[in-house]
Design goal:
The complex is a heterodimer. Chain A is an all-alpha fold. Chain A is about 80% helix and about 0% strand. The radius of gyration of chain A is 26 Å and the shape is elongated. The chains are: A mainly alpha, B alpha+beta.
Chain lengths: ~350, ~475
């Protein structure tokens, strides 16, 4: 039964991914066209410089010939629909092409190489923040649920609302201003000091650079997590079996951590992982503010450079990761909660 | 539901809402924002801040990167404040065909840091020779300017003393034998004018406090020359409620002007997207069968899109104005309430009165809009309130990336300027903190209201 559910879910995931990539391709092909044509003209002009002693007729012929060749290479001579399908296919096969100006650390212009070296950095930043966030959030949420309506619950709920509409990158700016420029205890950004130190100091240096962005994310994140945990736990606490457990004289601590947590864990974990997924794809500006060389920063940079292949590649990979995460989440959830695989979707 | 029914259920809701303290605080804040919106013209020190935010000539008389005025209270070293100067006397002398307009401006200087500039403006239609000199409290007189200049209709005569009179100020120092070894480039005119004559004037200027008399003479040669008005302003080191940015714009004006855009973006996006989401969810639940499946598949496609990157790419492609941004945000935001609404709809659908009205031959549209959607209105309002902050933050994020609407002033755009202008590095907190604070504050307001409604709608969350 679970296998069937799993196959179905994975199939849907892939289908959705294909549809989205198709939409993106259509979106980009319209913009791409002008950029690409301009780029080709420039390349041909560069080739012309190398030639000399040609008549104007020969030059004209040469331009025509080279242009036709390049257009054929990029399929610009084909109708737009065919181009969209072709780009969809090449993106799906991870054939992301070459960037127009951005290079990877090794100097490579292959989009896949450029993006893939950024993925681990982004993941490190956000998952370490999320880990701390979850620990503090769940702990505080349980405390809040224990005495719902109490002083701690009320005051921290106000905290939740205060940070509710606060952009994380703005808090980042403030903290950079204070910690990096005013009292100078943390670096203002980046992944490593320049030049990066060797050996064990390399990791310590990375940790040191990680501290401020992670702190910012945690400071802004754990309130919401705590509030959510509180609500989920409170909902569970009203179930009959909790009352039965209490009636049996089981100590309150055990009721809370044993019985209640077991039921509330899946939704809490799901929510947290969803938040992680959202923040990996959604904190583009955050990385830019901290100059953290991850995918978000690349996105910002590609946007400024108008580097369409990198933008497209980055978007395709981000979307892929996002959908993979969603599918994985559903599968894990299906494993934890047997009701789902029987009823299709809860 | 009839109007009367609606009213009584609203009254019931209001009675509950009043008991939630945080919700009431939220409403008070919301009222505050609406007041700002309403009285915006009165609150703006620069009335054209909205239309001329990006027009540098509108702001050129302000000091650049000036801290807020009230920072003087916390500093032992008082900085001069921006202010217009009063003309003490104004007289017109006639000497044959030549007319001379003489004005004396008084400036009572009681600060420690000299103003950043002194600006003289005249409007009219003339070719006057302008003579400006200043008489200091220590009795010394400095000639600052003597130059034939031009005023035309529509283009004021603007003289910024700091820039035009460096030579004269330097010569003054020289004549006092205080300029040995100083190069002119290291000096600032206003520092010389408002400091005691010492050789240390370049590094640690000692303020010369007292009354300064700035005399301006305009010599008009021709009969047809007209000078309509003149004014003199001091551009201080501190200005206004929230200071200025590095292109001399008043940040308070920007923040106040941003209120209405944030409101518009947040409320409109929330209203449209939640309405669509609620109707979509109810339809999906009510129609059932393959229609429900299809609608759910479409919904799944939308929730699988990483919103922000796609939003950014779309903005970069379309170079949108504010309405387009709102529209694009709605494309992604409508999915928010669908799942909850659908499950609520599935319950409502089974109620007997739905069945009854179906038996009476009511159309699907009628059942959905008349009998099901009204029941979800409270939920929709709560969900709208909670969607507002997100939309504001997303717009700010787009603006920070430089993808905002260039014709309006939003908080995100002020922050973008601050980020690009190195406000963090130079410690210009008055440029970074207020716009972000405004975003957070507005988010908080709607969160207060939304969470309060949520609490009423989900009685489970009150206590254990």
């Amino acid at each position: 039964m679970f296998w069937k559910y799993m196959l179905k879910r994975v199939f849907y995931g892939i289908l959705i991914y294909i549809i989205l990539i198709f939409v993106f391709s259509a979106l980009f092909n319209t913009v791409m066209e002008q950029t690409l044509r301009g780029q080709i003209d420039e390349e041909i002009r560069g080739e012309l410089m190398a030639l000399d002693n040609r008549s104007s007729q020969q030059i004209q012929d040469f331009i025509e010939m080279r242009r036709a060749e390049k257009y054929a290479l990029y399929r610009l001579d084909k109708p737009i629909f065919e181009r969209i399908v072709w780009r969809t296919w090449s993106t799906l096969t991870l054939n992301l092409g070459k960037s127009s100006s951005i290079r990877s650390a090794a100097g490579d212009r292959n989009v896949w190489a450029i993006v893939s070296e950024k993925i681990p950095r982004t993941l490190i930043l956000f998952s370490s923040a999320m880990l701390i966030d979850i620990i503090i959030g769940i702990w505080l949420g349980l405390k809040k649920a224990q005495k719902a309506g109490g002083v701690l619950d009320k005051s921290t709920s106000v905290g939740t609302m205060v940070v509710f509409g606060m952009p994380s990158w703005w808090l980042g700016m403030i903290l950079i201003m204070f910690f990096a420029y005013t009292i100078k205890v943390f670096p203002s950004g980046g992944l490593h000091a320049t030049p990066p130190p060797e050996g064990i100091a390399f990791f310590l240096d990375a940790l040191y650079h990680l501290a401020l962005p992670v702190m910012t994310l945690v400071v802004i994140g754990f309130w919401g997590r705590a509030f959510l945990t509180r609500n989920i736990v409170l909902g569970v606490l009203q179930d009959d079996y909790i009352m039965a457990a209490r009636a049996r004289g089981i100590p309150e601590r055990k009721v809370l951590y044993g019985h209640t947590m077991r039921t509330s864990a899946p939704p809490i974990v799901t929510m947290s992982l969803l938040a992680l997924l959202a923040s990996v794809s959604g904190n583009i500006v955050f990385e830019g503010i901290f100059n953290w060389p991850g995918m978000g920063n690349l996105f910002w940079f590609a946007l400024q450079q108008n580097d369409v292949p990198v933008l497209m590649g980055n978007l395709a990979i981000t979307t892929g990761l996002y959908i993979c995460g969603l599918v994985l989440l559903d599968l894990v959830y299906g494993l934890l909660d047997p009701r789902i695989k029987v009823g299709g979707r809860a | 539901m009839r109007i009367g029914e609606m009213k009584s259920s609203f009254n019931e809701f209001w009675g509950e809402f009043r008991k939630v303290k945080s919700g009431m605080i939220g409403l008070v804040f919301l009222g505050l924002f609406l007041m700002i919106l309403f009285f915006e013209p009165l609150l703006l020190p620069f009335e054209q801040a909205n239309s001329r935010w990006k027009d540098i000539t509108y702001w050129e008389d302000n000091p650049a990167s000036a801290a807020p005025q009230w920072t003087n209270f916390f500093s032992s070293k008082k900085s001069s404040v921006s202010m217009p100067l009063e003309a003490e006397k104004k007289e017109v002398k006639n000497a044959g065909t030549i007319r001379i307009i003489e004005e004396t401006f008084l400036y009572d200087y009681q600060y420690d840091a000299a103003p950043s500039d002194i600006i003289f403006r005249a409007s009219g239609q003339a070719n006057p020779t302008v003579i400006i000199s200043v008489e200091r409290p220590d009795g010394k007189k400095i000639d600052l300017l003597r130059k034939p200049l031009e005023v035309t209709q529509g283009k004021d005569l603007r003289i910024a003393i700091d820039k035009t009179s460096l030579n004269e100020a330097y010569n003054f120092l020289k004549s006092m034998d205080a300029a040995t070894g100083l190069s002119k480039q290291t000096l600032k005119t206003t520092d010389i004018l408002f400091s005691k004559v010492e050789e240390s004037v370049v590094f640690t200027p000692q303020a010369l406090k007292g009354e300064y008399r700035i005399m301006v003479s305009l010599i008009l040669q021709k009969e047809t020359d007209v000078i309509e008005s003149t004014e003199m302003k001091v551009a201080g080191r501190v200005q206004g409620i929230l200071g200025t940015d590095n292109s001399k714009r008043d940040i308070w004006s920007g923040v106040i002007a941003g209120v209405k855009w944030a409101m518009l973006i947040g409320l409109l996006t929330a209203l449209i997207s939640v309405s669509i989401g609620v109707v979509y969810g109810v339809m999906s639940a009510y129609l059932g069968g393959w229609k429900d499946s299809l609608m759910q598949r479409i919904f799944e496609i939308f929730i699988s899109v990483p919103m922000l990157p796609v939003l950014i790419v779309m903005s970069a492609v379309f170079k949108p104005n504010i309405w387009m941004i709102i529209f694009i945000m709605c494309i992604f935001y409508w999915v928010g309430p669908v799942k909850t609404v659908r499950s609520m709809g599935l319950q409502i659908k089974e109620e007997t009165y739905i069945e009854a009205s179906r038996a009476l031959g009511a159309s699907n549209t009628r059942i959905i809009f008349k009998h099901m959607v009204p029941l979800l209105i409270p939920y929709a309002f709560a969900s709208m309130a909670l969607n507002v902050p997100g939309a504001i933050v997303v717009e700010a994020t787009l603006s920070l990336l430089g993808l905002g609407d260039p014709n309006i002033v939003t908080w995100g755009q002020i922050l973008q300027d601050a980020h690009n202008g190195g406000a963090m590095l130079s410690g210009m907190w008055w440029w970074v903190v207020p716009p972000g604070m405004a975003i957070a504050f507005m988010g908080m307001t709607f969160a207060f209201v939304g969470f309060a409604m949520d609490k009423i709608l989900n009685p489970k969350l009150k206590t254990r």
